[in-house]
Amino acid sequence: MVGLLVLALGLGVLGWAGYQYLGTNVVAQRAFTEEKDGLRSQWEQESLAPTPKATATSSTTPEPSPSATVPGDAIALLRVPAFGSTFEVPILSGTDLDTLSRGVGHYTSTALPGQVGNFAVAGHRVTHGQPFAKLLDLDQGDQVIVETRTAIYTYVIEEPPRALTVKPSDSWVLDPVPGERTATPTQALLTLTTCQDLFRSPDRSVGFARLASTKNKG
Questions:
Q1: Residue 62 and residue 165 in contact, taking contact as beta carbons nearer than 8 Å
Q2: Terminal CA-to-CA distance of the chain, rounded, Å?
Q3: pTM tops 0.70
Q4: For 18-65, what is each residue's pLDDT tens digit?
Q5: CATH number of the domain at 2-48+70-216, please?
Q6: DSSP 125-181
């Protein structure tokens, strides 16, 4: 009887581990597709609606403010050419566990794509679709492309994620100017964060990129 209980417990642990490292990826990939399709459909509907007239100082419709985004909603698409031509994941508002199981999460306290300041995102390196599985393979000069309803922003990696590991309490990486809490930002930056180890770890690998170009849509 004891042997059967131990066997059942072992099978249960193996089943749980199998779901965590395989099953969650299947579920997450389906969620990624649904989020991307939903976001593109939303953009298409919004493009058909009347747009505000451009002001004398702006020729494009501005991105929504952080307070206008709904937690958990998709706000952009992320592409990394170094990860392959088919790599594309949704960026969602927030970084809670549920949100990170459906895409890459945006730290809502940071800037939005293309804005002056620090646009910071987080993603799983393993399980739940593992969108940042290859994040530590990025090199200086690699591109990270963020597409929103109004524009396509191309960032270029300046400090690769494998070069910097921080503790969860090191919130300075999310500052408008990382490491300079009181500084006023003058450039549009991108911060990428993920688990430092392949298995669950409190440490974070962090990479920094700078906006290199903006292509307005429509």
A1: no
A2: 69
A3: yes
A4: 444 556 678 888 999 999 999 999 999 987 876 555 454 444 445 555
A5: 2.40.260.10
A6: SSSTT-TTTTGGG--TT-EEEEE-SSEEEEEEEEE-GGG-EE-TT-GGGGSSSTT-T
